[in-house]
What we know:
This protein is an alpha/beta fold. It has a single domain, classed as NAD(P)-binding Rossmann-like Domain (Rossmann fold, 3-Layer(aba) Sandwich). It has 4 helices and 4 strands; from the N terminus they run E-H-E-H-E-H-E-H. The protein has a 4-stranded parallel sheet, sandwiched between helices. The longest helix is centred in the N-terminal third of the chain and has 12 residues, at 11-22. It is globular and about 30 Å long. The two termini are 20 Å apart.
Amino acid sequence: MHVFVTGGTGTIGSAVVSELLDNDHTVLALARSDRSVQVLADAGAQVLRGGLSDLDVLRSGVAQSEGVISLAFDHGDHGADALAAAIT
Length: 88
C-alpha cells in the first residue's frame, strides 16, 4: 500500500513511517524543512515538500496515495481543516 503521512519525523510519526516501510508499504511523507527531507529520505520514504497549510501540496499527496495517516501538529488554525479539505 502507498501511504501519505504527515508528521513523519515526529516521535510517533517516525515510528509509524518505520513500521510501514518495514512491512513492505511505500511511504510518501510531507516535509516542511530541509532537515525533515533528509530524515525521511534516509529512512527510505519518498518526500513531498510543503506544509499543512499548502492545500495543493496536500491534495497532491492524497491523490498519489491509497491511504493517509495524519500525525502532524499545526501550530496555526488551518492544519486539520486543510488536510480534511484535501481528502474530500
